[in-house]
Design brief:
Strand order of the largest sheet: 1-7-8-9-10-11-12
CATH class: Alpha Beta
Number of strands: 12
Shape: globular
Helix content: 40-55%
Distance between the termini: 14 Å
Order of helices and strands: HHHEEEEEHEHEHHHEHEHEHEHHEH
Structural class: alpha/beta
Strand content: 5-15%
CATH architecture: Alpha-Beta Barrel
Length: 348
């Protein structure tokens, strides 16, 4: 099978030739791995690790304004951030906003989404790999950035119409952004990939009632958009969010990415038994306690155990339990995981 055939068979909850592999690699890890393995570039590393996916990106063509001294980046909604990797917001621009202020905020124009080059890139990979595309659409994170987490929760009770307006403006932009991408190259994309972290180590960041009221309808908008273009939809979601999975199945979400078995409620055997016939699970190999702190031998054994639980019947993609493999992850451990999937992940 090609990688694309392998992944799409898995998304149909059927058994391919082997379990597909996913590798979300940070820039710093890739640079280190290429040095240690003597590889030329990202594509060579993905080939070495057996990654069955490739991803195409649009870019935001917006005027470059100077950042304040402390800031390292600015989101599309104007929040400046600093710190390790993606960092943390330096301020919350809508923390004291009224409903009128939310409507008057300078929301970006989807015309800024530059899709040039996406079709050519996707076409070069399409016959071999499963192609991920669409805007990441992290509107839950953006809401926290714009209001602050505590204020966001308070406004869900004190000013629900303000939270509704905030979510609508953001998802209007992200839906229009992805529509531009899919109009350009949707026939060459296989999976609409979005990301919203809804869990902590100990459980969901909001209960089912608030989730269903404020977040789920907007996730459904994005899922419906992907399906409109004939795509599967996969969402990255960190943490222990098991109480929300049934709702995600109900809105038609096809796959959950970066399953973290070390978090509350995310026991792999329980997830497979309860949801494995309806939801594709991607991840499951513990990034922290296994891939960072383990040895190649312990990684091999842990990967074998995860595969034993998750691979029967299809519907499983093997990979690290976090989207962004960090620089401190030993390269030999990532190689050991990939080798173990090849060794133990074949369907008989």
């Amino acid at each position: 099978m090609t990688s694309r055939e392998r992944v799409l068979t898995t998304f149909e909850h059927r058994e391919p030739d082997r379990v597909p592999m996913w590798h979300g690699l940070s820039d710093l890890f890739m640079a280190k791995a290429n040095r240690e393995l003597g590889l030329a570039d990202e594509e060579a590393l993905r080939q070495r690790l057996g990654d069955d996916f490739r991803r195409v990106f649009a870019r935001y063509d917006v005027p470059e304004e100077p950042l304040p001294e402390r800031a390292l980046s600015r989101t599309i909604f104007g929040v400046e951030r600093a710190g390790y990797e993606y960092g943390q917001p330096l301020s919350h621009p809508l923390a004291e906003a009224t409903l009128e202020d939310v409507h008057a905020y300078p929301w970006p124009d989807p015309a800024c989404v530059d899709v040039s080059g996406i079709r050519e890139t996707a076409a070069a990979w399409h016959d071999e790999f499963a192609i991920l595309g669409g805007d990441w659409s992290p509107f839950w994170h953006d809401a926290i950035d714009l209001l602050g987490m505590e204020k966001l929760y308070m406004q869900m009770y004190d000013a629900p119409e303000l939270v509704d307006a905030l979510m609508t403006h953001m998802v209007d932009f992200y839906a229009a952004s992805s529509r531009r991408i899919f109009d350009e190259a949707g026939d060459l994309v296989d999976i609409f990939f979005i990301g919203n972290d809804l869990g902590s180590q100990t459980g969901p960041l909001l209960g089912p009632e608030l989730f269903e009221r404020f977040v789920l309808p907007h996730l459904k908008r994005l899922v419906d958009l992907g399906h409109e273009y004939g795509l599967k939809v996969q969402m990255h979601c960190c943490g222990g969010f098991e109480p929300l999975i049934a709702d995600l199945i109900d809105i038609g979400l096809d796959a959950l990415h970066a399953v973290q078995p070390s978090c509350h409620g995310m026991d792999l055997e329980s997830l497979k038994a309860a949801y494995g016939s309806k939801m594709v699970f991607n991840g499951g190999i513990d990034s922290h306690h296994v891939l960072i702190d383990g040895t190649p031998e312990s990684v091999r054994e842990s990967t074998r155990k995860v595969l034993e639980i998750m691979m029967p019947g299809g519907g499983f993609i093997a990979g690290a339990s976090h989207d962004w493999v960090l620089e401190e992850t030993p390269v030999e451990n990532m190689v050991a995981m990939a080798n173990a999937v090849r060794e133990f992940g074949e369907y008989r």
